[in-house]
Amino acid sequence: MAKIKKKHTEGASRTYTTRNRALKKLQVSLADFRRLCILKGIYPVEPRSRKQANRGSTKLTTFYYSRDIQLLLSEPLIEKFRAHKVFLRKLQHALGKDDLTRARSMDTNRPTYTLNHLVVERYPAFADALRDLDDGLCMMFLFATMPIIKGELVTGDIVNECRRLSTEFMHYVIHTRALRKVFLSIKGIYYQAEVQGQAITWIVPYQFSQRVPTDVDFKVMATFLQFYRTLMGFVNYRLFTTANLAYPPHLDEAMDESGVGLGSLKVESQRIEDLISAREQDGEAPQVTDQQMAQRLQTLGSKLQTLVEPKEPAYEAVEAVDVEDAEGSPMFANHVIFLSREVPRHSLEFVLRAAGGRVGWDKASGGGSAYAENDRAITVQISDRPAQGHQYLDRTYVQPQWVYDSINAGRVLDTENYLVGQPLPAHLSPFVEYQDGDYVPQEAALAAQGFEGEVTNLQPEDVDAEVSEHDDGVDGESADESDADDEVDASIEKQYKTQLEAERAGVPFSAYAAPTADKGKKGRKVDRKAEEDAERQKIAISMLSSKKRKAVNRANAETYKRKKDVNALKTRKAQLAKH
To answer: CA 282: distance to chain centroid?
Structure first.
């Protein structure tokens, strides 16, 4: 007799488990279970059949993978949470009996825990951590601008740590010239940097006073932030050491209090003594023979002399290099830019320094500026006021959008379209990737061709003509294609000459255009052929199965909707152009 199988021992009921069963199995509270799932990266799932997964019940509930809950059984954080609860009970008991000495002693020895093992467990490779860094950076920059909330989980230490970690990452982006895209939106400023081959995108709020919402659960956000703070510490350490920079960078408290910003952190190269000691600790110290040591001592004097001699700043050597002609040189290397007090100084300072520029700002924006407003070395001043009290003739006054558009274009744009007081061109998002059939603005089409300037009433055939001129001879066209183009040009030129001769001879246009009457028949033939193709396609679709036919109809509906949206945008643009 075969063995009788028990119910719910295989299939969906074993693959998935409900939240209540998980709580009973782990013996934790709902709040601790949520914290564990957030820290471990375990998220709810949706089974294909909720009835089978819930053992025949149709009650609404949350499902998790059973293997994820099984892994939580061996998590050491559960014991830490239980120890913390025991500590709170003992502390409340001591405070209830007015035993302040014992309460202070217990508070000093408060149990703590770290999340270092979770970072190593969730990200075995460093590329995995970089790939998952977008949300962490957004959270860091958000809490770095948050006010301190009394009674909530946003304390001053958390805000300062978020500000320090985010500033360290910005310094690494500046040092490695990794910034690629910038976009100003209503929500904030989007940045994208390429770090070790990984594109990292994050958003930074504007420097306004934040209004703390009342409908946000800060406990959940604080749990995410706790993990991201640990992750950012690991990532920043690895990035700085890879770039041969000392970590953590030294913070100048006096400059930080005066509002210097990025300059308050002193980023320095890692010392040779630290590198040697690190290699000795790893057991990788090189074995040097007596002969090699003698050779090094002979050349030690010349090396010390080169180190002692004062050197000019690095930007002086780059100043004579043309940014547009030199490959790999910083974009704003030969620009000294001054920021007026009404422009977003922190964002512009980060973007300009990441592109190799030298920046100064007004005293009202903070201390620590390397250039005063009357400095003759300044070449560009960024201002957002239509009228200036005093203008210097040896510099150009532009609006802030010039910097961001130059970063997105990958080159220093002409300042003619960004002068103070002039209407600005459209600030297009560099994160949009246009597909076939999408609406492409004129500015985006011109930017893709490397065109600078203002063009009105641009037609699609004009864009195609310009693209063909740029692409001529670049893509390696075949000999047959070039011969076909030559034949078309020859036929057009022949038709033009024939029209001129008919006009000189006084032949009326009706008589001249009579031979072209047969072209209407060809057009009708083409229309009939298109109708036959459409009918053949309908027949082919009707012969498909129901599932495939629905998929084809959905694809056609999406294509029709995209064309309808594109036509609506074109119509709207034409209406705005009339006014």
So the answer is: 36
Q: Which helix or strand (DSSP H or E) is residue 409 part of?
A: helix 401-409
Measured distance CA(399)–CA(415) in Å, rounded:
9
CA angle, corner 99, sides to 98 and 101, nearest 5? 135
Q: Which of 412, 409, 386 is nearest to 399 (CA)?
A: 386
- Which of 21-25, 52-56, 414-418, 504-508 comes out lowest in average pLDDT? 504-508
pLDDT tens-digit map of 82-101? 999 999 999 999 999 888 88
Task: Enter the tokens of residue 281.
Answer: 């600790």
What does the DSSP assignment read for 474-534?
TS---HHHHHHHHHHHHHHHHHHHHHHHHHHHT--HHHHHGGGGHHHHHHHHHHHHHHHHH
Q: Which of 410, 397, 406 is nearest to 425 (CA)?
A: 406
The Cα 47–Cα 57 span in angstroms is: 13
Full strand arrangement of the beta sheet holding 380-382: 358-361, 336-339, 380-382, 396-398
Mean pLDDT of 423-449: 78
Distance CA 494, CA 530 (A): 30
3-class secondary structure, 370: coil
Predicted TM-score (pTM) of this structure: 0.72
Question: What was the pLDDT predicted at 313?
Answer: 36
b/e map 485-519, b = 16+ CB within 10 Å: eeeeeeeeeeeeeeeeeeeeeeeeeeeeeeeeeee
Of residues 191, 107, 158, the one with CA closest to residue 404: 191
Full 3-state SS string of 81-118: HHHHHHHHHHHHHHHHCCCHHHHHHHHHCCCCCCCHHH
Q: How many CB atoms lie within 10 A of CB 152?
A: 13
Element (H, E) at 291: helix 290-298
Residue type, 334: N
